[in-house]
């Protein structure tokens, strides 16, 4: 874009912020995961200035007006798509940019369906938060949107971006499902196909949300590791292992990807077999033997010589009886 063209755009609505390209109508693109996704975080922003200009032109051409609204009058979307983190370098960079150059691209809001004079954000939640923290009005386009239209706008604004992690998308899918949206709607909002939607829901519906939120977005952890995590979590004792690891000293202070690794290692540890003990007594209360079971181990320790002889005589018969009962099984 030429300097002259950029100046024209700035004069229409403040400075132009790098916006996210709108989701294409073509089949959803391949989504990188894990370390590849982390590497793409910066590469995906190279063409954003041109995309911002395009989005602004389209918005103005459709007759939308950009208003300045008090951030306190704007509520978050009724379904969150991000996992909050204590330290967010990207947000801090965005905040510094807005502080220095002003908000460059408006957010999208709808009139709040319950509170008169208030609004509900479809997308642009970080720009909204940044404006609130700086103490300036937020620039916004106001449209009347149904719940479905709001979720589609929210999901498709995030769709082309690479900075929503797999687990954030999975949790977003679960929240949409809990609000009654069908699979087709969830797939459209996520700009993905039904098999991938099923995988996202499989992970998010298996793992307790408390565990997911404790781990955080984990941007370097992709689909394969989260699917394996869900399988381990589903095993006997998996939930207890994850809970115990989550409460270890220093867990909260670790970086989000490291928190995933801590719980993953806990899930991989083999559980010690449960041990049970029982005492056999006569009707008169005399002790005959103690019985110990641990995994596949079954041990009888006779406390009476007579009972020991009795068991020895019955062992062959017990083996035959066992064989007859299990024949054909």
From TrEMBL:
Residues 67-159 form the ParB-like N-terminal domain. Keywords: Plasmid. GO terms for biological process: chromosome segregation. SUPFAM superfamilies: KorB DNA-binding domain-like, ParB/Sulfiredoxin. The keyword NADP does not apply. Residues 13-35 are annotated as: Disordered. GO terms for molecular function: DNA binding. SMART domains: ParB. CDD domains: RepB_like_N (cd16405). GO terms for cellular component: chromosome. The keyword Cell division does not apply. Belongs to the ParB family. This is Plasmid partitioning protein RepB 5-1. The lineage of its organism: Bacteria, Pseudomonadati, Pseudomonadota, Alphaproteobacteria, Hyphomicrobiales.
């Amino acid at each position: 874009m030429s300097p002259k063209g950029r100046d024209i755009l700035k004069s229409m609505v403040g400075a132009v912020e790098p916006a996210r390209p709108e989701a294409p109508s073509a089949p959803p693109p391949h989504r990188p995961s894990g370390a590849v996704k982390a590497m793409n975080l910066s590469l995906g922003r190279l063409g954003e200035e041109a995309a911002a200009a395009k989005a602004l032109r389209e918005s103005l051409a459709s007759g939308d007006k950009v208003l300045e609204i008090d951030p306190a009058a704007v509520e978050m979307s009724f379904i969150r798509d991000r996992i909050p983190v204590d330290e967010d370098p990207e947000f801090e960079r965005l905040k510094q940019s807005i502080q220095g150059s002003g908000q460059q691209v408006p957010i999208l809001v709808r009139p709040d369906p319950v509170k008169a004079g208030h609004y509900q954000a479809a997308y642009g939640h970080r720009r909204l938060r940044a404006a609130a923290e700086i103490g300036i009005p937020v620039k916004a386009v106001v449209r009347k949107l149904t719940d479905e239209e709001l979720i589609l706008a929210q999901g498709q604004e995030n769709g082309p971006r690479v900075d929503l992690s797999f687990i954030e998308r999975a949790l977003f899918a679960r929240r949409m499902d809990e609000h009654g949206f069908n699979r087709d709607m969830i797939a459209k909002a996520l700009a993905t196909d039904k098999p991938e939607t099923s995988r996202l829901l499989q992970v998010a519906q298996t793992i307790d949300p408390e565990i997911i939120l404790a781990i955080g977005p984990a941007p370097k952890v992709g689909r394969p590791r989260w699917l394996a995590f869900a399988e381990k979590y589903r095993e006997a004792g998996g939930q207890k292992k994850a809970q115990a690891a989550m409460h270890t000293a220093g867990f909260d202070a670790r970086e989000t990807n490291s928190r995933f690794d801590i719980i993953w290692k806990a899930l991989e540890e083999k559980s010690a077999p449960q041990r049970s003990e029982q005492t056999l007594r006569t009707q008169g209360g005399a002790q005959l033997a103690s019985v110990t079971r641990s995994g596949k181990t079954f041990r009888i320790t006779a406390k009476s010589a007579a009972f020991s002889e009795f068991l020895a005589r019955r062992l062959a018969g017990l083996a035959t009886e066992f064989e007859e009962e299990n024949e054909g099984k």
